[in-house]
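User: Could you check the structure of this?
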Amino acid sequence: MAISGFASHSISLFFYVILAAFLPQGASQIIPVQGQNLVTNNVSVVEGETAIISCRVKNNDDSVIQLLNPNRQTIYFRDVRPLKDSRFQLVNFSDNELLVSLSNVSLSDEGRYVCQLYTDPPQEAYAEITVLVPPGNPILESREEIVSEGNETEITCTAMGSKPASTIKWMKGDQPLQGDSTVEEFYDRMYTVTSRLRLRVSKEDDGVAVICIVDHPAVKDFQAQKYLEVQYKPEVKIVVEFPEGLTREGEHLELTCNAKGKPQPHQINWLKVDDDFPSHAVITGSDLYIENLNKSYNGTYRCVASNLVGEAYDDYILYVYDVHTTTPPPTTTTINPDASQDSRADGVPPKIDHAVIGGVVAVVVFAMLCLLIVLGRYFARHKGTYFTHEAKGADDAADADTAIINAEGGHNNSDDKKEYYI
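Assistant: Sure, the predicted structure tokens are below.
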């Protein structure tokens, strides 16, 4: 029975092969891409992986289904494979479906495959197989390995040998950046993409990762990164080691100059701005020590640090107080334009000129004395008398006697009643 079944199957296969051979060449163009009852779909597959080709029939009336390659060679006729390519394997066969797998896909397998249904007239549907070729590992190159702050650098990212062409994006830390991309096409529609990123760096960029991200249908999260190495001039800060509070006469002062840069500062110098350094001040590396303070040491002390990139400084303003001073002074801040840092005036009171104050007080006292003198002379000149009611009308008399006689009331009294005022 098995031999008989195989023989009948072989005869049927032979009949359909002969029938296919005698079909006219233009017959395959009669039916559009998707026939009335025949359905298939396009396939995208990564090179080296497996593609699944599906031929499906709706309401099949026992018509024969077969699958042909782009050269119109029969891959499967029903469930039989005439083509001697073991990469094609039957996944499923029924009256309504022919499902075939193609393993280890290569670029040569790309093209249009034909699902064919033997009806009258024959029907065809087409499945496009697109082979995706992922790019090689992205290659990062930089114009220089070490960049000084404020300068511009260029980084190049290349994604080679992909199909289709890759897309390249850039990130600096979590910040997206924009590069300039060029695309070159090689054989078999293979592409190489190169993107160039130009950026100006600051000291904050030192150690930050620049990431090249390759976007392609065949791969995910394909990226390469490079950490920026940025050189920058020193950052300088003066720290008061002693005393913790006010700087008083007789005590000592100890300052430390902290300087950090890339490369590390190779030279640290102390100086006193616009004046000579105290003769017994001791400098040991980055430390400054002055003992037995007195007010002649007041002034601005500066620490200057330098490296290959540049130099920067920080200032400390010294004000020496009397021994019994306890009230802290107001603090002022100045800006150091070269080092871009704040300089501190630790314990500096507002400068008061006592001689000026004494002079102002003396002027005020002198002015008050002058005013009193002028007022005294004024009142002395205007000293006079006024008369009582008995002598009213005396202003019109020719002399004193007549004034007494003419006075209202007729009193003849030689004693004038007078009241004086100042």
